[in-house]
Amino acid sequence: MPQLPAPDYPADVRARLEADAGEIIARYPDSRSALLPMLHLVQSEEGHVTPTGLRFCAEMLDLTTAEVTAVATFYTMYRRKPSGDYQVGVCTNTLCAVMGGDAIFEALQEHLGVGNDETTEDGKVTLEHIECNAACDFAPVVMVNWEFFDNQTPESARKLVDDLRAGREVLPTRGAPLCTFKETARILAGFPDERPGAVEASGSAGEASLAGLKLAKGEKAGPKVVSPRGGGGPASAGQPVTETGEAPQPHPSSHDAPRKTAASDPDNPAGPVAKEGK
Question: Residue 49 is part of which domain span?
Fold first, then answer.
């Protein structure tokens, strides 16, 4: 049975998208190079890349729908089915996983009642595994529409998605203010980011990420306090203190403190294995 052609956008939507597409295409010497931002553009219209969006891109760039589809299906940033206003991605690459990313993902699956790449019934949240987002200093990391939520726990992640679904204000750990997935897609298409404070916050990094840069510039690094996550208060025996005798502020990545036992096998020490005869 032959496949029916994809429907076109309504005339007013088509005219608006054509104007935006013309602006995108004009940035490139070869129109084909505009395909990636064009896919973000059509995604910003419906929240995912639809057959109509694929057809629009093909027509505007003089490509076949097969060529456009090949690109849209290659990159995971392009959604191929309806998804939520907020893409909640849990990093489960190695470091985030061992720091608790797997536990966070499992907790959110149970809490939201969805699996990987599935959306809650209210259409608010889509949960997914994500690859490393270069924020290992703050593992485990959760991303919402590509904004950072650092040093998460199952408890904080559950509160995060509850606030998103309830429409309460949610502030990323750093970076630009949060916006919807459609708004994010339009920004990724290359149009101005009109969120208040977004320009000032763009490219922001936390203190843990900047520590190496400061050392490279010859700046003196403060003493590092290694303590379990959530720890604080006065310095204990053996911990460094400042010149005033007070405990320095905990290092942002201090939750990776050495443990006397392996978390997965508390009955056995995690230290070096003793050699025979010693």
Answer: 11-72
CATH of the domain at 30: 1.10.10
CB contact set of 271 (below 8 Å; sequence gap of 6+): 260
Secondary structure (H, E, C), 246-272: CCCCCCCCHHHCCCCEECCEEEEECCC
CB atoms within 10 A of CB 75: 10
β-partners of residue 127 are: 88, 118
User: Domain ends where: 43, 72, 101?
Assistant: 72
Q: What is the pLDDT of residues 169-202, one digit of tens each?
A: 999 988 788 999 999 999 999 998 877 766 655 5
Task: Identify the helix (H) or strand (E) that includes residue 45.
Answer: helix 35-46
pTM: 0.70
Bond before 51 cis per omega within 30 degrees:
no
**223-245 as b/e, with b when 16 or more CB fall inside 10 Å?**
eebebeeeeeeebeeeeeeeeee
**Which residues does residue 142 pair with via DSSP β-bridges, in sequence order?**
90, 149
Widest CA span in the chain: 84
